[in-house]
């Protein structure tokens, strides 16, 4: 059965299509109450579904917020998405979601799709990239976002500004102190760990990962320790698992099960994975090789994702207010919101680095 049309509604109500459109699509120019009621009854009797894009044109607002994330299955992004959803609900808007696996080209396509649907604002969550392979995609994404902003759209970005954007106008950035927090984590770990340090990082040029690596190295230097070795891998659980397998070969002496020698003061190696899902992957890999945390290796992550509530041993990490970040990333979510806002975090040491697990873990 074909969908009812606006023309059919107008014919049944005895009005012009323009009048029916003004009633059903929310125009500020509304006819009298009797006519409006007649049009609504006709629409109900025909099962007419209003055109959302037509409503957006009539109201100069679509009531939509576009959200772009790398991977909604990653608890980091799902927590941010909850915050975006909360802010959207407060504004009486709906959220459209796109996942892109971190590809600037796919992000550009998502922006174009949201702009075509007249989304009132767009939120982009996920590390920006300075990799050479992403230069073309970055330029195209920036051009698409600049065009969207010039046409009245507003863009919220988590972490770093859009690479290559021509102007700050229309952009709103939630700044995360990744480098400072990673430095603080390194200093606290250095105070209790006497062995070597290794960092499991994402690909070079991934700005969030680079910031956290740089901060951790600075924290070690502040503590008078040499720089940690850095292993670059995928910025996800699989990447962490791969790095964990490589490290297991170093930790386990001569292929024996269990690395800690009798009477040793603690694990020879302290691992910092630049996000929690990588830390979870690395831990799983070490376990698969018969190694135990924190006996054979200490490990810490970053973000404090919700999944850690059920992870054992409780993972040392840097706690970020992820849902609050999502809420703040929505343009207009906070009265008087500036072009840039900053959030804070805190180092949380738990059993995975030999500390007593906190009550919230």
Please render the helix and strand layout as text.
Layout (H helix, E strand, L loop, with lengths): L5 H8 L3 H8 L8 H14 L5 H8 L4 E6 L5 H16 L3 E6 L4 H13 L4 E4 L10 H16 L3 E5 L12 E5 L2 H13 L5 E6 L5 H16 L6 E4 L4 H15 L17 E5 L2 H13 L9 E3 L16 E3 L2 H8 L10 E3 L3 E3 L13
Parallel strand pairs: 1-2, 1-3, 3-4, 4-5, 5-11, 6-7, 6-8, 8-9
Antiparallel strand pairs: 10-12
Key terms:
Rossmann fold; 4-stranded parallel beta sheet; 361 residues; 3 domains; 6-stranded parallel beta sheet; 12 helices; alpha/beta; 15% strand; 434 Repressor (Amino-terminal Domain); elongated
Description:
By secondary structure, the protein is of the alpha/beta class. The chain folds into three domains: about 5-60, 434 Repressor (Amino-terminal Domain) (Orthogonal Bundle); about 65-175, Response regulator (Rossmann fold), CATH 3.40.50; about 180-320 and about 345-355, Response regulator (Rossmann fold, 3-Layer(aba) Sandwich). The chain has helices spanning about 5-15, 15-25, 35-45, 50-60, 75-90, 105-115, 135-150, 180-190, 205-220, 235-250, 275-290, 320-330; strands spanning about 65-70, 95-100, 120-125, 155-160, 170-175, 195-200, 230, 270-275, 300, 315-320, 340, 345-350. The strands form three sheets. A six-stranded parallel sheet has the order 2-1-3-4-5-11, with helices on both faces. It has a four-stranded parallel sheet with strand order 7-6-8-9, with helices on both faces. Strands 10-12 form a two-stranded antiparallel sheet. Strand 3, helix 7 and strand 4 (about 155-160) form a beta-alpha-beta unit. The longest helix is centred in the N-terminal third of the chain and has 16 residues, at about 75-90.
